[in-house]
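Can you give me the bound-state structure? Components:
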Amino acid sequence: MPSLPTPHAAVVGLQWGDEGKGKIVDLLTARYDCIVRYNGGANAGHTVQVGTERYALHLIPSGILSHGKTNVVGNGVVVDPEKILEEIEGLRKRGVEVGSNLRISDRAHVVMPYHKDQDAALEDLLAKRAGTKGNGGSIGTTRRGIGPAYADKIRRSTAIRMGDLLDRDLLERKLDTICSMRMAELQALGATIGTNPGEVAPLVPRELAARFSAAGERLRPHITDTVYLLHDAMREGRSVLFEGANACLLDIDHGTFPFVTSSNCSTLGIPSGSGVPGRAIGKVYGIMKAYSTRVGGGPFVTELLDATGDRIRTRGREYGTTTGRARRCGWLDLVAVRYSTMVCGADAIACTLLDVLSGFDELKVCVGYRRADGTVTDRFVPDAERMSEFTPVYETLAGWSRELTDCHDRADLPDEAQQYLAFIEQFTGTPIELVSVGPERTQTLESARKVPVAAR
Ligand code: GDP
Ligand code: IMO
Ligand code: MG
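Here's the bound-state model for the whole set.
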């Protein structure tokens, strides 16, 4: 491996998703040759605004909107073939080129319709059993079949990979074994197999094989060994930007388990999800919004269930890109963000949606968690049960009234906004290199200022 600094970088969410990763990847794409998704699936919704055009990307890397880039869906992604075809068609209709600039790993696992049925059936069952409140009960998944598809990957013998779609006989043989087993599993989860509304259609191996080998044929030009593709590109001097989906606090190992997604969405998922060793990555951009949001269930220490939370939701237009659900909103949790910068090895922070905080007299940031016995910790605990006893310890900072959407330089920001950013830098020990004050590319302030990094 070269001893020179490597040109490859990663963008990763430091909270519970929807931090504006799509916007930042789109912005940074100009500096890289290949943009790579390494985890998750169509549970992700990355919005990119180019002028007045808004694009919502779910499976395709955000680099697709820039000309001349290679966009890779890595082996760690779970691909819903029909959804990605829909996404390709949607982009083409809007004049976006999708051809040899999109490569999909032959080893990426396939999300089948029964995975979505399983996801929904389990969520319904959990909701029925334990109620639908934030803690306990259902996870509040996107119902895109993500968990069941990754479960099949780990189970091995019931998994289908993108490469398998290119061999109809092999696919049908696999589905023969899978379908009868899967119908029994669905029934055990409370689903009724039948053709009436609300029932799960019987799984017929032959029909599914025909449907998904047809999708595979349409995707054939894109399916390849992306591990060699990436290593060849890097050897030829091309640079790679990894685009994290979901976010560190939803990471299966390091997030608020079990209210997480089923992949390693932190940067720790990059090596396994792309075949590129971690040491190849020279820079990690951690993306955080200036407050907190989360969709679905699970602990959220700084959640605001009041008018302040509603105000953040309205100003930030906090409704899901993938499911349209209202996002839960709250003050910035710096204990959580500092933990994520540590786990992801973030060298720099991009702080997005700062504009949303204009107009508040004061702003709170969480700097510790108070346990039920009154003691305080400044360490994150990635376990939902143990986190449920925490209440926030806040530091109060001054707010600002001016709208920020027209600021073009960090020095133009009101003093209070600059102090807010400086507090984040100090607390996390990580410099903020990018500040976003609106969804458009131009609404981004790049900081030349290098902040001394304190010990984490
Ligand atoms: P991602 O999943 O991390 O890519 O984020 P999403 O696209 O799901 O959600 C972020 C939302 O905020 C999108 O609608 C973006 O267009 C929007 N956005 C990104 N940055 C900013 C910003 O600085 N200010 C405002 N007001 N909106 C932003
Ligand atoms: P982006 O990439 C926000 C959440 C779901 C649910 C949990 C598990 O747009 O930031 P899953 O369907 O993955 O099994 O759901 O994870 N979740 C996200 N929340 N943004 C995302 O992606 C998410 N991806 C998954 O809401 O709570
Ligand atoms: Mg999103």
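A couple of observations. The pocket of guanosine-5'-diphosphate (ligand 1) is lined by residues 13, 17-23, 45-47, 49, 321, 352-353, 355-356, 436-439 (CB under 6 Å). The chain has twelve helices and 20 strands.
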